[in-house]
Amino acid sequence: MHWRCWSAAPLRTIGGWCPRWRCCGRRRGGERVIVPAFVYFFAQLYPFRRVNRPSARTAAAAGGCMLVRRGALIAAGGLDPIRGARIDDVALGRLLKRPPSRARIWLGFSTGVRSLRPYPGLGTLWDMIARSAYTQLRYSPVLLAATLGGLLWLYVLPPAAAVAGLASAAAGGGAAAGWAAGAGLAGWAGMTLSFLPVLRLYRLSWFRAPVLPLVAVLYAVMTADSARRHYAGRGGEWKGRTVAPRRGQSAANRP
């Protein structure tokens, strides 16, 4: 399946496929909660259509499976320009799409590529996300506050408004309570429907979709913890070592 995608686009220089992660084991509750939402948020942060559009500045790649034309990689300077990048797959996609290479790239989902890396518990997944979340925000407290506020606004406010509105309407709160409940339920339903394709990709029950707001809160906490680790000198911890940010890396990690 994924090879057909590559051969159908001979002019593209790099192809990246988001593999289907391991999250279906009976004892892998953390993976079932975190992994689908990780893919969901990644696709929002780097919309695949914009990544694949040559005229768009957005560039990304999925490290699970990547194919790169050797000549284009050499022309871009090889891997040396990104050797210190914490988000190295995205950095590679950006390196090839922007000058001097200006290569065409492709990013998409695949069911023909499966990740074998296990994440046995919530702690390992937490470390994986906290390792690079604040890097993606360019180590900016302003962007951190905006991201946390955005997660709460988009994913927590709708269900909170729905529950509060319904409770107020039941107590005779009037038209305002009804409007709040209706708007909250509409927003909640919208995010639930948008999450369903990712759950289908991982063959998980649709019953998990309505609890996306709780998962978003968990991601907000992990993002805040990423910033805490950075200021404590523990940012970039991965597999027993700390990957220090290179000078100018914050600019290199921009979408």
What report would you give on this structure?
By secondary structure, this protein is mainly α. Helix content is 54%, strand content 11%. A three-stranded mixed beta sheet has the order 2-1-3. A hairpin with a 2-residue loop joins strand 4 and strand 5. The longest helix has 30 residues, at 141-170. Residues 1-11 and 247-255 have low confidence and may be disordered.
Fill in the keyword field for this structure.
mainly alpha, two-stranded antiparallel ribbon, single chain, 255 residues, three-stranded mixed sheet, disordered C terminus
Estimate the helix proportion, in percent: 40-55%
Shape: globular
* Oligomeric category: single chain
| Overall average residue pLDDT | 83
**Number of helical elements:** 11
Largest β-sheet summary: 3 strands, mixed
Low-confidence stretches: 1-11, 247-255
Radius of gyration: 20 Å
Q: Numbering strands along the chain, what is their spatial order in the largest sheet? A: 2-1-3
From the N-terminal CA to the C-terminal CA, the straight-line distance is 28 Å
Order of helices and strands: HEHHEHHEHHHHHEEH
Number of E-state strands: 5
Structural class: mainly alpha
Estimate what percentage of residues fall within beta strands.
5-15%
